[in-house]
Amino acid sequence: MNSTFFLIAAYLAIWAGIFGYLLVTGRHQQRLARRLEMLEERISRTEAGQ
Amino acid sequence: MIPRTRNPEPVLITCTALLFAAAVYAVFFHAPAERVMGLVQKIFYFHLSCALVAFLSFTTACISGVAYLVSRDLKWDVLGAAAVEIGLVFTTLVLATGMLWGRPVWNAWWTWDPRLTTSLILWFIFAAYFILRAAVEKRQQRAAYCAVMAIAGFVDVPIVFLSARLWRSIHPVVIRADGVNMAPPMLTALLVSLAAFAALWGVLLRRRVRILAMAEQIRILEHRLDREPAQARRARY
Question: Of B30, B57, B202, B213, which has the highest C-beta tally within 10 A?
Answer without folding.
Answer: B57
